């Protein structure tokens, strides 16, 4: 995700999130498990250029080529109603009629919307993560409640 830029210790970064809300001046990040603070963040074309406090030479950031820049979980900022994949995987999926379909075993990103892969006794079911299907995600309760639209489930069961 990263490579050096210029000779003054900057990194060219391609963030996963186009807005890059966590990669701002003053933010604390981790590279190879060590904590650093961003001194300056600026956009150049479609890449983000970052400079870190105390690092002013290309040789200091060269070992970071291809490294992931991470942030502490407590620093994550997210919109209400959004979830991380690791919070979703393992949740039970039940219909409005309280029929247990199984547990979410994977989350596929399709571009238009995520798709929850639900694995249960009847096999694998693909559930689109859209408002007309997903009625409730209860992380604490360990359950996702869905409305089974026509054709979504194999009705021959």
How would you sum up this structure, described in words?
The chain has 157 residues and is mainly beta. The chain has 2 domains: 2-75, Elongation Factor Tu (Ef-tu), domain 3; 85-146, SH3 type barrels. Helices cover 5% and strands 43% of the residues. It has 2 helices and 12 strands, in the order E-E-E-E-E-H-E-H-E-E-E-E-E-E. The strands form 2 sheets. The chain has a 6-stranded antiparallel beta sheet with strand order 1-2-5-4-3-6, with no helix packed on it. A 6-stranded mixed beta sheet has the order 10-9-8-7-12-11, with no helix packed on it. A hairpin with a 2-residue loop joins strand 3 and strand 4. The N and C termini lie far apart (46 Å). The model has no long low-confidence stretch (mean pLDDT 88).
């Amino acid at each position: 995700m990263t490579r050096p830029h210029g000779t003054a210790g900057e990194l060219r970064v391609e963030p996963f999130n186009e807005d890059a809300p966590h990669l701002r001046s003053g933010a604390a990040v981790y590279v190879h498990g060590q904590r650093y603070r961003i001194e300056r963040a600026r956009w150049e074309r479609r890449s983000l250029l970052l400079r870190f406090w105390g690092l002013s030479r290309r040789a200091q950031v060269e070992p970071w080529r291809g490294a992931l820049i991470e942030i502490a979980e407590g620093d994550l900022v997210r919109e209400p109603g959004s979830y991380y994949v690791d919070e979703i995987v393992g949740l039970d999926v039940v219909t409005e009629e309280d029929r247990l379909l199984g547990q979410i075993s994977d989350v596929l990103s399709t571009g238009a919307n995520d798709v929850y892969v639900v694995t249960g006794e009847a096999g694998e079911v693909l559930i689109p993560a859209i408002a007309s299907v997903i009625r409730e995600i209860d992380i604490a309760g360990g359950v996702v409640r869905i409305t089974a639209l026509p054709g979504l489930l194999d009705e021959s069961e």
